[in-house]
Amino acid sequence: MAKAPKRVAVTGAAGQIGYSLLFRIANGDLLGKDQPVILQLLEIPDEKAQKALKGVIMEIDDCAFPLLAGVTAHSDSLTAFKDVDVALLVGARPRGPGMERKDLLEANAQIFTVQGKALDAVASRDVKVLVVGNPANTNAYIAMKSAPNLPAKNFTAMLRLDHNRALSQVAAKIGQPVSAIEKLCVWGNHSPTMYADYRFATADGKSVKDLINDQVWNKDTFLPTVGKRGAAIIEARGLSSAASAANAAIDHVRDWVLGTNGKWTTMGIPSDGSYGIPEGTMFGFPVTTENGEYKIVQGLEIDEFSQERINITLKELLEEREGVKHLVG
Ligand SMILES: NC(=O)C1=CN([C@@H]2O[C@H](COP(=O)(O)OP(=O)(O)OC[C@H]3O[C@@H](n4cnc5c(N)ncnc54)[C@H](O)[C@@H]3O)[C@@H](O)[C@H]2O)C=CC1
Ligand SMILES: O=C([O-])CC(=O)C(=O)O
Q1: Helices within 136-282 (DSSP H only)
Q2: How far apart are CA 82 and CA 88, in angstroms?
Q3: Residue 145 contacts by C-beta under 8 Å, 6 or more apart in sequence?
Q4: Which residues form the active site (predicted)?
Q5: How far apart are CA 281 and CA 137, in angstroms?
Q6: How far apart are CA 84 and CA 240, in angstroms?
Q7: Residue 162 and residue 134: Cα distance in Å, rounded?
Q8: pLDDT, tens digit (0-9, with 9 covering 90-100), for 140-157
Q9: Distance between CA 63 and CA 55 in Å, rounded?
Q10: Residue among 74, 163, 190, 252 flagged as catalytic
Q11: How far is the CA of 132 from the centre of ligand 2 (A)?
Q12: What is the C-alpha separation between 12 and 282, in angstroms, rounded?
C-alpha cells in the first residue's frame, strides 16, 4: 500500500537555496523514493516574492514528480506550518562580502521567534525542524525557545555543510574518495570558529590523522579553509552558497529520518550537557541516527588543542545567545 504523504514546509522558498532544494525534495531525495510529499512553501507577504514563488511552483508542476502529492504557497507561517512533519527554515537574509554570519543576527532573529511560535501552535508534535538561515545555531535556539510545547530535541541547526566541506578537503588531502571516510565530525557553531575534527576519522579503516600526520596543515590550512569556505564562495560567486547548502539540508534531514546505519554525521542539536557543553546550547556534535532519533557519539577523548577549539566556538555561541536574550525571555 502506498504511504500517506508527509508534509514538508520550506521557508524562503523563492530564494536561491529554495530553488536548489524544492525539486530534490519533490523527487524523493529527502524522505525516500517511496514517500509521497506535500510541499507547503512560505515566502514574505510581498508581491514580488509571492510572484516569484508562483513561478517556482509552475516549474515544480512542470516536472510532474510522481511523489509530489501537493504544493501550496503561503505568506503566513501559521498556514504554512499546519500539520507539517518536517520544517526547513531557510528564509532569512544572506550575508554579503565582508560580513560575518552573526552580523545577520539583528536582521534575522525576529523571523525565528515568529516561526518558532507558529510551529508550536500548528505543526505536528513530532515535527523535525532544520534551521538553515544564518546565524543558523542561534536562530535554531530562538525557534526552539519560542516553541515551549514542542520537544526541544526537534530543533536542529545545519552544520552539515561544514561537515561535507571537511570531508571533501580531507579526501583530497589523502587522495581517497569521500565515500571511504568515516567518523569525521564538526563541533560547535556554523561560523569560522567551528572545529572540524578528523582525529577519529578513518579511510578504509586506516586512521586519517596518521595518514595526514601534519598538525600544521590541520591548524593553518584545513581549519581555516573549512571555516572560511562560505566567505570564499561569496567572494567567487558574488552570492552565498546555495546548491551545496540545499544539498547539505537534504543530507541532514534524510539522515535524521532514515538513519545513518551506525555511521557518524554532524548535526547542530541542543546539548544534553555532553562534553561539558551547557544544556540547551545549539551545538554541532558527532551523532548517529536511528528510528528518527539522533544520539551524540559519547566517550571521545578531547585533547588540549581540541578543547581550546571547542571553548572558542562555545564562547561565540554563548555570546550570540546573550545578544538575543530579549527575544527568548
Ligand atoms: N547554515 C548554512 O550552512 C547555510 C545558511 N545559509 C543561509 O540561508 C539563508 C537563505 O539563503 P539564500 O536562499 O541564499 O537567500 P535568498 O536571499 O536567495 O533567499 C531568501 C529568501 O527568504 C525569503 N524570506 C525572508 N524572510 C522570510 C520570512 N520571514 N519568511 C519566509 N521567507 C522569508 C526572502 O524573500 C528570500 O526569497 C541565509 O540566511 C543564508 O545565510 C546559506 C548557506 C549555508
Ligand atoms: O557563508 C555564508 O554566509 C553562507 C553560509 O552559511 C555558508 O556558505 O556556509
Answers
A1: 136-145, 160-174, 208-212, 215-217, 223-227, 229-237, 243-258
A2: 14
A3: 116, 328, 329
A4: 190
A5: 9
A6: 28
A7: 13
A8: 999 999 999 999 999 999
A9: 13
A10: 190
A11: 9
A12: 22
All 3 cell numbers of residue 212?
595526514
Distance 102 CA to ligand 1 centre (A): 14
Is 17 touching ligand 1 by the criterion CB < 6 Å? yes
Active site residue 74: no
The per-residue pLDDT for range 70-110, each reduced to its tens digit, is: 999 999 999 999 999 999 999 998 888 888 888 888 888 99
> Is the distance from the beta carbon of residue 246 to the nearest atom of ligand 2 less than 6 Å?
no
Does the beta carbon of 95 lie inside 6 Å of ligand 2?
yes
User: Alpha-carbon distance 54 to 77, whole Å?
Assistant: 17
Cell of 282: 545549539
Is residue 40 within 8 A of residue 7, CB to CB? The reply is yes
From the CA of 158, the nearest ligand is 1
pLDDT (tens, 9 = 90+) of the chain, 329 residues, equals 789 999 999 999 999 999 999 999 999 999 999 999 999 999 999 999 999 999 999 999 999 999 999 999 999 999 999 999 999 999 998 888 888 888 888 888 999 999 999 999 999 999 999 999 999 999 999 999 999 999 999 999 999 999 999 999 999 999 999 999 999 999 999 999 999 999 999 999 999 999 999 999 999 999 999 999 999 999 999 999 999 999 999 999 999 999 999 999 999 999 999 999 999 999 999 999 999 999 999 999 999 999 999 999 999 999 999 999 988 87
Regarding an ipTM greater than 0.95, the answer is: yes
**Strand-pair partners of 285:** 267
d(CA 193, CA 101): 11
- Note the pTM of the prediction, 2 decimals: 0.98
Cα separation, 287 vs 65, in Å, equals 32
Measure the CA–CA gap between 4 and 25, rounded to whole angstroms.
16
